[in-house]
Structure formats: C-alpha cells, structure tokens
TrEMBL record:
One of its GO terms (biological process) is proteolysis. This is S1-C subfamily serine protease. Belongs to the peptidase S1C family. Pfam families: Trypsin_2 (PF13365). It comes from Paenibacillus eucommiae. GO terms for molecular function: peptidase activity.
Length: 231
C-alpha cells in the first residue's frame, strides 16, 4: 500500500510539472528569423511611386497595409506634395489611385486608402484581399532585435536586421526610435518589425551625424491618425 501511495504521489508530481511546462510554453510567443519574417510580412508591404501630372516620377518610397480593405501608412515626406500616388504590391498588382486620408507633417506620418481590393485583380484575374501587418501592443526596448523591409528599387523588396539603439530620442523636436537596421533610399515608410512579425514603427530617415543609425516613427504616432477601428 505504501508503495502504491508513493507511486501515485510521484505520478501527480510529474503530471503537475508537465502541465506547468505546457502552460509556460503556451504563453511564450514564437520567435522568427529574417527568412520567416520576410515570408510572413512581405505581401503587406508595397512600393510607392509619387507621380506628377505628366506621369514622371517625383519620389518613391514604401507603404504598409494595416487593414484588409486597404488602409495603409507611409512616411509623410514620401507623399508630400503628391499629385498622384501609385503602388505596386509584392505579387505584382499595380494599385492606383491611392488616396491620402490624413497626415501629420511633424510626426512624418501619412494614412493612405488603397482602392477596393475587389477591383484589383491578381495575375490570375481572381480577387485577392490585402494582406496586413499587426500593430504591436508593446513598446520596443534597448537592444531588441528588429527587422526592416522596404523597396530601394521597384519590384525589389529587401529585408535588413539590427537592434533598437534606443526606444526614444528627441530629434528635431520629434520623438523617434533609433535602430541599427540598415536603411537606404526608397525604404522610407516601410515597416520595422519585431521577432514576432508585429509592426513596431515605420522608417522615417537617417541621422547624418551617426553612421548606420536610423530613425523610426513609433506606433503611438501612427495610432493617433488611424481610423477608430484600427486604434
């Protein structure tokens, strides 16, 4: 009888440990590498062209889709003074015209509205809803690994990785995240993502006095301009 009781106690202890182990791991978010981040996120990132009335290109940049019906965000300086905005999705679909819903020049944020996805056929002429990125609910931390995606060339999205150098720095009267993820011309307006693939901010520019340190607009500045359903 004593052996049976001891065996039962040991079984209960092991079972409790297993339950605890499962619960702990269930609450741990997945961590993705650069290849997986790009695979999961690239379809929600698009190439932006700013066109003049004669169809010449005035500026280029990157945009990020936030809702299936076409709400998106980019850096304001990308679309400043735009006469017409056109986008190209990762799957090759050209989207035009793109409307500016709201913007804040100081924050360097512009909220865009892409055409109804039902009217934008894919290569096989079938309807495809817009892919989107999820806004992170957590603030970035010093040293956190992040990824940047953008379009330095048409039809050529790239991904880079780095860390958060600081979650908050006042630059020209604006709060910015600083990151070492490599940024080049054309990536402005593109996403900065954490290791779960969540949007931490959008690319704003670089610091001329610091080599390889770049500026990121925090999601709190995005939320202040987004439609209520996305805040």
């Amino acid at each position: 009888m004593k052996r049976k009781i001891m065996a039962l106690g040991l079984f209960i202890t092991l079972l409790s440990g297993m339950i605890f182990y499962v619960n702990v791991n269930a609450d741990t978010p997945p961590i993705y590498n650069a290849e997986e981040i790009f695979e999961h996120s690239a379809d929600a990132v698009f190439y932006v062209r700013i066109l003049q009335n004669d169809d010449t290109v005035k500026a280029v940049g990157t945009g990020v889709l936030l809702s299936p019906d076409g709400i998106a965000v980019t850096a304001y300086h990308v679309i400043k003074g735009a006469e017409r905005i056109e986008g190209t999705l990762n799957d090759g679909r050209v989207i035009s015209p793109i409307e500016v819903l709201s913007y804040d020049e100081l924050k360097d944020v512009a909220i865009l509205k892409l055409p109804d996805p039902k009217k934008i056929a894919g290569k096989d002429k079938t309807y495809k809803a817009y892919n989107v990125l999820q806004l992170s609910e957590k603030s970035v931390k010093h040293g956190e690994k992040v990824f940047a995606i953008g379009y330095p060339l048409k039809n050529t999205p790239i991904i880079t990785e780095g860390i958060v150098n600081t979650p908050k720095a006042e630059i020209n009267g604006r709060d910015r995240i600083l990151t070492s993820a490599q940024i080049v011309s054309g990536m402005s307006g593109g996403p900065i993502l954490d290791q779960q693939g969540h949007l931490k901010g959008i690319i704003s520019g670089s610091i001329r006095t610091m080599n390889n340190i770049h500026l990121v607009i925090d999601t709190k500045d995005l939320r202040s301009l987004l439609p209520a359903k996305l805040k």
